[in-house]
């Protein structure tokens, strides 16, 4: 951005690619590499000097993790037997320099948070972040340390006394919910595939927050097969009213793209166009409610070539106010360099899936599984915020 005032920051360094669970593990860091290369080729990052993170310190990670767990992570690559703590499993295999790579992801999200808290930026994005499943004392769901929770904890101590966390990953944002379940200063909202049909099996509307924090955990489980219009209908039926009631000082969003119809690990049916609409909605809500303060993190996404790079290039563009027209052709050089990574599928030709994201706003009277889910969540949580669950105006 040259000499202009910096209003948005991108946290990035190639060292993020060291968070590599190895072999044919679904969470392959190539998705990050291809995203940055696509965003660069399209000019989204022109003039942007990335914020290069430092690894989080042990004390910073221990904001949300037990010291004994850090010790287990640090020792795991040298252990000759099962180290426990969820490590050494198919989901969370041990890899060389695991602590260092994981601490860097946390450091990236902390760097993004510091850019906002310092006033150097209103928005910041770390696509390597979003590891929302890690628990206080164990790894889970491909996540070693919970960078989302560490960043939120730090923000609470640095000028942001009310924080809303929005999770659009296909899986429940269980680790972040667990970290702040008893904290009335943090509103966690997760839209995810119904837990009866998808790991981790949590995220029901009845999970509302602990004593003194009732109503600050919000869960909206969506039926398998939900498409863009249904996802957006559900979001707008629940989230904006709660945000306006809660009045957060900042939005922290986990922007997983495993909701896509091609994702191999889940069964929602969103498109790249739907993802773009979600990011624009996040931005609009931040502008309306938090004075523009928005910390965006990555998350899941396992169609590594056709989906993640396009979706997260839209995320980067949205954070930077450099929105990319969905009809934009993919750069020929990027396509040529990428084609070998997806030998069984053609590379898309544009930044769009040609999907219609138009949706009909919730009116309270439709008789569908989606609307039943909306009603259940509204009836569980809206009264705790002084809102009428059956009034479409709320």
From TrEMBL:
* Known pathway: Ketone degradation; acetoin degradation
What keywords would UniProt list here?
A: Acetoin catabolism
GO MF terms listed in the record are:
histone deacetylase activity
Q: Transcription: is it a keyword of this entry? A: no
Where do the Histone deacetylase domain residues begin and end? Answer: 25-318
Among InterPro entries, the record links this protein to: AcuC (IPR003085), HDACs (IPR000286), His_deacetylse_dom (IPR023801), His_deacetylse_dom_sf (IPR037138), Ureohydrolase_dom_sf (IPR023696)
- A Pfam family that this protein carries is Hist_deacetyl
Tell me yes or no: is NADP among this UniProt entry's keywords: no
- GO BP: acetoin catabolic process; epigenetic regulation of gene expression
Q: SUPFAM superfamilies, alphabetically?
A: Arginase/deacetylase
Q: Which Gene3D superfamilies match?
A: Histone deacetylase domain (3.40.800.20)
- Give the highest taxon in the source lineage: Bacteria
Family indicated by similarity: Belongs to the histone deacetylase family.
Protein's name according to its UniProt entry: Acetoin utilization protein AcuC
């Amino acid at each position: 951005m040259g000499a202009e005032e910096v209003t948005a920051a991108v946290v990035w360094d190639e060292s993020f690619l060291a968070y590599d669970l190895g072999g044919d593990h679904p969470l392959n860091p190539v998705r990050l590499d291809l995203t940055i290369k696509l965003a660069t080729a399209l000019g989204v990052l022109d003039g942007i000097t990335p914020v290069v993170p430092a690894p989080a310190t042990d004390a910073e990670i221990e904001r949300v993790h037990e010291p004994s767990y850090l010790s287990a992570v640090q020792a795991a690559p040298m252990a000759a037997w099962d180290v426990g703590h969820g490590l050494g499993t198919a989901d969370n295999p041990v890899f060389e320099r695991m602590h260092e790579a994981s601490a860097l992801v946390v450091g990236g999200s902390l760097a993004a948070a510091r850019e906002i808290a310092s006033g150097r930026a209103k928005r910041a994005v770390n696509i390597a972040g979003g590891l929302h499943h890690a628990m206080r004392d164990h790894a889970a769901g491909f996540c070693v340390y919970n960078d989302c929770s560490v960043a939120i904890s730090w923000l609470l101590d640095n000028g942001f006394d009310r924080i809303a966390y929005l999770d659009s990953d296909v899986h429940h944002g269980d680790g972040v919910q667990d970290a702040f379940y008893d904290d009335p200063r943090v509103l966690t909202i997760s839209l995810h595939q119904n837990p009866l049909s998808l790991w981790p099996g949590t995220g029901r509307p009845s999970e509302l927050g602990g004593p003194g924090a009732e109503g600050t955990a919000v869960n909206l489980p969506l039926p398998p097969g939900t498409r863009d219009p249904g996802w957006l209908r559900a979001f707008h039926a629940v989230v904006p009213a709660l945000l306006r009631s809660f009045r957060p000082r900042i939005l922290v969003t986990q922007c997983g793209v495993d909701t896509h119809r091609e994702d191999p690990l889940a069964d929602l049916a969103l498109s790249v166009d739907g993802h773009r609409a979600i990011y624009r909605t996040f931005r609009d809500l931040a502008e309306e409610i938090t004075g523009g303060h928005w910390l965006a993190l990555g998350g899941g996404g396992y169609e590594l070539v056709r989906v993640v790079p396009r979706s997260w290039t839209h995320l980067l563009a949205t954070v930077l106010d450099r929105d990319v027209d969905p009809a934009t052709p993919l750069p020929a050089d990027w396509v040529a360099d990428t084609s070998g990574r997806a030998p069984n599928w053609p590379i898309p030709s544009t930044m769009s899936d040609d999907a219609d994201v138009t949706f009909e706003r919730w009116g309270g009277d439709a008789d569908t599984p989606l609307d039943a889910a909306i009603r259940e969540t509204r009836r569980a949580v809206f009264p705790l915020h002084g809102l009428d669950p059956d009034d479409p105006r709320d």
